[in-house]
């Protein structure tokens, strides 16, 4: 009986900690802007992410890697309708690869072969990845027109892109 009581106690404590951390994360999301960190564009030129903007319209930042199949599936799903997303909500998607020196050579060819119209960068040292507290890819962040983080989403399941579009429409007030 003691083991069962201890197990229930641990579950309750875990749930309380999860709800507190979720509430804190949601509160922090509404305040967080992109940090002062540099990434490389496809030509190797350094770019400060704090300067990313979309003229007061929403932005999506998708963290991905060339070796991550769910990442590529998510970006492909969005690519299928990206032109429409831009017309409807004025959204800009920025794809930021976390590929390191061993795998970053494949970024440019993968993006080219897929015909993605996104801005693509490489977080070669994972500085941005760490600064935003990301644990794994795919990971998507939605920013409002003021550049504040409104929503975060880890992982990808087919159909997640529809929720993402609804979030963007809401931010754009459509």
UniProtKB/TrEMBL annotation:
Segments forming domain Thioredoxin: 28-173
Molecular function as annotated in GO: antioxidant activity; oxidoreductase activity
Gene3D superfamilies assigned to the protein according to its UniProt record, in alphabetical order: Glutaredoxin
Signal in keyword set: yes
One Pfam family here: AhpC-TSA
Keywords: Signal
PROSITE patterns from the UniProt entry: THIOREDOXIN_2
Protein name in UniProt: TlpA family protein disulfide reductase
Biological source species: Chitinophaga fulva
